[in-house]
């Protein structure tokens, strides 16, 4: 059925987790870029919501072992980039911007720790861990090729 759940599953999984395209084939697809941006936004649980839907799409039919392993590595890789490197650069720039010449600083008012949202970071950390372990637990029932 066109535009049925199986069609959406196939379309999303092929755009974001294709089995026969390299990264050079993927970057030509605009939907790949939309999914990539969604997978990097850590605020408001957007990244966890995106990966939750992706896991549901993988598990809708018989899950493939390759797709589950690729899902786990992609989830952990984007967590490293979004919550690790990007957050580290943002924090370093924030500290540089709040320290002024002459030794005075306003880091207690507008520093990076002042703008830290602990709830968003906690949702991203625990959601990432829970999705990783859920996908790992589903490997037992996956189809091996």
UniProtKB/TrEMBL annotation:
Keywords: Membrane, Transmembrane, Transmembrane helix. The keyword Transmembrane helix applies. The chain crosses the membrane at residues 31-59, 79-98. It comes from the Eukaryota. This is Uncharacterized protein. It comes from Alexandrium catenella (Red tide dinoflagellate).
């Amino acid at each position: 059925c066109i535009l049925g759940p199986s069609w959406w599953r196939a379309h999303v999984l092929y755009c974001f987790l294709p089995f026969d395209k390299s990264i050079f084939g993927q970057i030509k697809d605009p939907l790949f870029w939309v999914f990539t941006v969604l997978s990097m936004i850590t605020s408001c649980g957007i990244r966890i919501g995106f990966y939750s839907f992706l896991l549901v799409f993988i598990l809708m039919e018989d899950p493939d072992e390759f797709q589950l392993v690729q899902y786990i590595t992609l989830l952990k890789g984007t967590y490293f980039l979004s919550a690790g490197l990007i957050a580290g650069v943002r924090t370093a720039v924030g500290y540089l911007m709040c320290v002024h010449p002459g030794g005075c600083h306003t880091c207690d008012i507008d520093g990076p720790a002042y703008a830290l949202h602990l709830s968003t970071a906690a949702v991203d950390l625990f959601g990432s861990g829970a999705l990783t372990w859920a996908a790992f637990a589903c490997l037992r029932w996956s189809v091996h090729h």
